[in-house]
TrEMBL record:
This is Transcriptional regulator. It comes from Candidatus Methylomirabilis limnetica. The lineage of its organism: Bacteria, Candidatus Methylomirabilota, Candidatus Methylomirabilia, Candidatus Methylomirabilales, Candidatus Methylomirabilaceae. Coiled coil: none annotated. It comes from the Bacteria. The keyword Metal-binding does not apply.
Length: 108
């Protein structure tokens, strides 16, 4: 049986919320090639800067992205640690056995 701490489930819920939007998935795909400036992401995704900023904020709050400022530009990149944690979490959900389940008396 899977035994996850409530904080793990809270963190996973934030990840899945952040990943539940097609635009945010496109952002992640673009950033998988490396760090990008907001202006470049705006052009690549053909969106407005305000809408892009909303999606970037959601991904950053979920811990999926990191950012750095250089002059007047902000550059975003994927958080390798968060991506690895997400992969581990999803991996922990795999069924561990194929045995028959003993039926509960409540199910009879």
């Amino acid at each position: 049986m899977l035994s996850l701490m409530p904080k793990d489930l809270t963190r996973a819920a934030r990840w899945f919320h952040a990943l539940s939007d097609e635009t945010r998935l496109q952002i992640i795909e673009r950033l998988s090639d490396g760090e990008q400036c907001v202006c470049d992401l705006t052009d690549m995704l053909a969106t407005t800067q305000s809408l892009l900023s909303f999606h970037l904020k959601t991904l950053k709050e979920a811990g999926i992205l990191t950012d750095r400022r250089e002059g007047r530009w902000v550059y975003y990149s994927l958080s390798l640690e968060a991506i690895e944690d997400l992969q581990r979490f999803i991996g922990s959900l795999k069924p561990r056995g194929r045995g028959l389940r003993v039926s509960s008396k409540r199910c009879d």
